[in-house]
From TrEMBL:
SMART domains: HALZ (SM00340), HOX (SM00389)
Gene3D superfamilies cross-referenced by the UniProt entry: Homeodomain-like (1.10.10.60)
Pfam families, per database record: HALZ, HD-ZIP_N, Homeodomain
Protein name as catalogued: Homeobox domain-containing protein
Annotated ranges, domain Homeobox: 140-200
Family listed: Belongs to the HD-ZIP homeobox family. Class II subfamily.
Classification of source organism: Eukaryota, Viridiplantae, Streptophyta, Embryophyta, Tracheophyta
A molecular function (GO) term: sequence-specific DNA binding
Keywords noted in UniProt: DNA-binding, Homeobox, Nucleus, Transcription, Transcription regulation
InterPro entries reported for this sequence: HD, HD-ZIP_Homeobox_LZ_Class_II, HD-ZIP_N, Homeobox_CS, Homeodomain-like_sf, Leu_zip_homeo
Length: 297
DNA sequence: CATCAGGACCCTTTTACGTCA
DNA sequence: AGTGACGTAAAAGGGTCCTGA
């Protein structure tokens, strides 16, 4: 049952992500960034080259630290619960002064912890706050307290996320038990983590599209120039010789005999030399096209 | 077959916390 | 040392979708 649900979700959100992230791929870009794809569990929504966690996800200091710790044995033992930040460094998990009561390992320090026991439905805000108020009475008027996860907790979560970016209830419960967190906290962490992943991927896609757009703009500019030159050439060819001869051509147009491409080169010495432009039987197509003629007729 | 409850997830917003100037 | 701005992670709230009863 659990696995079924899981698979379904994957499928569902795979489609979802096609909408969200598909833009970079619609252009048929094979995102070359895909180098280290192995790192991140290719989520169902993996559409383009996954950049791997290395360069992407640890965008912030804290996550970075967590990722660096990844090598540590996966199942950390004696993980620092959210309380008693004994010898934490900068990422000390602080307990709110109000939350002086120590809950037993099962009940997390999260002020919202009561929420997780509300059978999953996160609605019922009033119930939540009410519960919170009753649970940690001294929480100061129901203001939720956020507790940073410890480095170790984050590392384990990161590791697990790399294996699979979603959790089935069993895994969630196990992880929560292992980390001494509420299942709800684990769930929220995974949600936020997925959101961060998606954001990063979107940024990468966006950057790629930007580059692609620049390339196309350049190409477009180049083609426009080429078109102008060709039009000028055509005009010159059509002009009567005596008129054309009076205007010293700023450039000399030459044609490659093999490929029949016309090249315009500045040629000072050959100023009076007029290229007999229509040497090439270029416009083989009638103008306007026959179809157009027919339709206009 | 229609309906409903339950569950999982996503998206957006809010809030608490940490850092820096 | 105190403070405000800012960035970020944790959490809330609301919505969608799917499944099973």
């Amino acid at each position: 049952m659990e696995m079924m649900v899981h698979g379904r979700r994957d499928e569902q959100y795979g489609q979802h992500h096609h909408l969200g992230l598909g833009l970079g791929l619609g252009l048929g870009l094979s995102l070359g960034v895909a180098g280290g794809a192995a790192d991140e569990t290719p989520p169902p929504q993996q559409l383009c080259g996954w950049n791997g966690a290395a360069g992407l996800f640890p965008s912030d200091r804290r996550t970075m630290m967590a990722c660096h710790d990844v090598e540590m044995p996966l199942f950390l033992r004696g993980i620092d619960v959210n309380r008693t930040p004994v010898a934490e460094t900068t990422t000390t998990v602080r307990r709110a002064p109000s939350c002086s009561d120590e809950e037993e390992p099962g009940a997390s320090s999260s002020p919202n912890s009561t929420l997780s026991s509300l059978s999953g439905k996160r609605g019922a805000p009033s119930a939540a706050t009410a519960a919170a108020g009753s649970d940690d009475e001294d929480s100061g008027g129901g203001s939720r307290k956020k507790l940073r996860l410890s480095k170790d907790q984050a590392a384990v979560l990161e590791d697990t996320f790399k294996e699979h970016n979603t959790l089935n209830p069993k895994q969630k419960a196990a992880l929560a038990r292992q980390l001494n967190l509420k299942p709800r906290q684990v769930e929220v962490w995974f949600q936020n983590r997925r959101a961060r992943t998606k954001l990063k991927q979107t940024e990468v896609d966006c950057e790629l599209l930007k580059r692609c757009c620049e390339t196309l703009t350049d190409e477009n500019r180049r083609l426009h120039r080429e078109l102008q030159e060709l039009r000028a050439l055509k005009l010159a060819a059509a002009a009567p010789h005596h008129l054309y001869a009076r205007v010293p051509p700023p450039t000399t147009l030459t044609m490659c005999p093999s490929c029949e491409r016309i090249a315009s080169t500045t040629h000072n010495s050959g100023a009076g030399k007029v290229v007999d432009a229509p040497a090439r039987p270029v416009p083989t197509r009638p103008w306007p096209p026959a179809a157009a003629q027919r339709s206009s007729a």
